[in-house]
């Protein structure tokens, strides 16, 4: 990784898992490993954000969240990055546009938990994200029904790719998204903070 930007070979398919990771935990690791396996990704980049625009309370300092993320996510095909801080982007759509411009030879897949799909229509320029990048939604405890009936899932129902075809998601024309029911893992950053186990 040079100057905060990870290395990848042209033609590779990279999964992007963004978030505040406040803190990173075993649940993040779990969905990352499932994404690598179920989507046929070459690599996954964790995008540890400077801050979440949808949250009013600021996260722990970026350096602390990065250190924790690198501690819990140790895999040869996963890179933990603070790339948004280097790009100067705050919203996912802008981050994606910047990454596609910087890495024209790569294909990206946006990864998110089902809880994020339920509120995806609140993200800035969320339709632009769907138009420019395949999206993989990984189910988490308690979020399946809200995600499946969400605004985004309803509007883009025709673009949904069945799980059996998810291996090739990164090479499909957009819009394209899939909903993967993965083995459950109940770890939650919110619960960890409430328990006093972080910070």
Please supply descriptive tags for the structure shown above.
199 residues; alpha/beta; six-stranded parallel sheet; 35% helix
Please characterize this protein's 3D structure.
The structure is a single chain. This protein has 199 residues and is an alpha/beta fold. The chain has one domain (13-194): HUPs (Rossmann fold, 3-Layer(aba) Sandwich), CATH 3.40.50.620. It is 35% helix and 16% strand. Strands 3-2-1-4-5-6 form a six-stranded parallel β-sheet. The radius of gyration is 16 Å and the shape is globular. It starts with 12 loop residues before the first strand and ends in a 5-residue tail after the last helix. The model has no long low-confidence stretch (mean pLDDT 88).
Please outline the helices and strands.
Layout: E1 13-19, H1 26-39, E2 43-48, H2 62-72, E3 78-81, H3 83-87, H4 92-102, E4 107-113, H5 114-118, H6 126-132, E5 135-138, H7 144-148, H8 151-155, E6 177-180, H9 189-194
Parallel strand pairs: 1-2, 1-4, 2-3, 4-5, 5-6
């Amino acid at each position: 990784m040079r100057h905060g930007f990870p290395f990848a070979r042209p033609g590779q398919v990279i999964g992007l898992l963004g978030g505040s990771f406040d803190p990173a935990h075993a649940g993040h690791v779990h969905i990352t490993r499932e994404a690598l396996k179920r989507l046929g990704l070459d690599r996954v980049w964790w995008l540890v954000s400077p801050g979440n625009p949808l949250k009013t309370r600021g996260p722990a300092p970026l350096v602390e969240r990065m250190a924790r993320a690198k501690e819990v996510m140790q895999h040869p095909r996963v890179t933990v990055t603070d790339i948004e801080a280097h790009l100067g982007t705050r919203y996912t759509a802008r981050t994606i546009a910047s990454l596609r411009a910087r890495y024209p030879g790569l294909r990206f897949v946006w990864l998110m938990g089902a809880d994020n799909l339920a509120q995806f229509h609140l993200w800035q320029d969320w339709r632009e994200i769907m138009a420019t990048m395949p999206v993989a939604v990984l189910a988490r405890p308690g979020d399946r029904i809200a995600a499946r009936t969400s605004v985004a899932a309803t509007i883009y129902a025709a673009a949904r790719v069945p799980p059996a075809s998810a291996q090739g998601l990164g090479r499909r024309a957009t819009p394209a998204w899939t909903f993967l029911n993965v083995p459950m893992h109940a770890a939650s950053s919110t619960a960890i903070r409430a328990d006093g186990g972080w910070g």
